[in-house]
Design brief:
This protein has one domain: Na+/H+ antiporter like fold. By secondary structure, it is mainly α. The longest helix has 41 residues. It is globular, with a radius of gyration of 18 Å. Helices cover 83% and strands 0% of the residues.
């Protein structure tokens, strides 16, 4: 019980702070904070974590494959569900595929599994993020556009990590210290952004929002278990994949849905419902992740 409190307490508190700031008269300039997180904090955290913890290519590869398997499985289930219900693939499919592995997921694996969970979580998260800004963007836009991906700084952070790892390059202390300081603000800033976003999003149509929210959780659990089974993942790696794959639909899906389609308000509602549903299920999800990892 105390373990769950220690995990859920910080996440809930920081998200609540973001929510209150988003509802306050002074407000919170989420666009500015989001830009800092995307352009500075995220690539810094990815670079520093993967380099300082000496993450090998085998770990990067296994987590990358796990992420791709989980997203592919969710995509297949999402296509089947939308074919049955007649929902718009362009609008709703990204919400069923891409989990909020950044805002909530990284905080969860860090608090649940410590530095090892963070090391594995970052290796999983950057693959999800790359796919969100390439495949997700292309689905929402209705056309393939890789230029959007090239503009994402995290791509260059991953390239640098691969160069350092492959060629065993020494990184100057000043770079490691700087990226450590900048990366440290990513998780709390993303949780604050999550809370602030929930304060401004609205559930316009409850029925489709509930459908997407429930489906994301069900597909997430199913795809996580499938990836763990197919890759025969053990220990903290299995627990990390389970937590990250079962996260609610990502907020970035609202941005793309608003930009490229008429149903952005429904996707907004789906994010709210999906996030609240996941918060309600977090004790069970954490318990299962710890049980799967064998670290209970």
């Amino acid at each position: 019980m105390m373990s769950l409190v220690n995990i859920l307490g910080p996440i809930t508190t920081i998200t609540l702070i973001g929510y209150l700031l988003g509802r306050s008269p002074s407000g919170l300039h989420t666009r500015t904070l989001g830009t800092i997180v995307l352009l500075v904090a995220t690539p810094s955290l990815i670079f520093h974590t993967l380099v300082s913890m000496h993450v090998g290519l085998d770990t990067l590869g296994s987590m990358a494959v796990a992420a791709l398997l989980a997203m592919t499985a969710s995509g297949v289930m999402g296509l089947a569900a939308l074919a049955v219900t007649g929902g718009s693939k362009q609008t709703y499919l990204p919400s069923l595929i891409f989990p909020n592995s950044g805002n909530m997921g990284l905080a969860l694996v860090l608090l649940t599994f410590g530095d090892e969970g963070m090391r594995l979580g970052i290796s999983y998260f950057f693959v999800v993020s790359i796919c969100q800004h390439s495949v997700g963007f292309s689905i929402a836009a209705g056309t393939v556009n890789l230029r959007h991906l090239v503009r994402q700084p995290l791509m260059y952070a991953v390239v640098l990590v691969l160069l350092v790892t492959i060629f065993d390059l020494a990184v100057p202390d000043v770079i490691m210290t700087t990226t450590e300081m900048l990366g440290a603000m990513m998780i709390p800033a993303m949780l604050i952004l999550l809370g602030a976003s929930l304060a401004t999003l609205h559930v316009a149509e409850l029925k489709p929002a509930m459908g997407i929210g429930i489906a994301r959780l069900v597909f997430g659990v199913a795809s996580a278990l499938l990836a763990i089974w197919l890759l025969d993942l053990q220990g903290i790696a299995a627990g990390t994949v389970f937590l990250l794959a079962t996260m609610p639909t990502a907020i970035v899906n609202v941005i793309y849905a608003d930009r490229h389609g008429p149903n952005g308000s429904t996707v907004s509602g789906a994010v709210v419902v999906s996030t609240l549903l996941t918060f309600l299920c977090l004790p069970a999800l954490i318990w299962v992740a710890i049980w799967i990892s064998g670290h209970g």
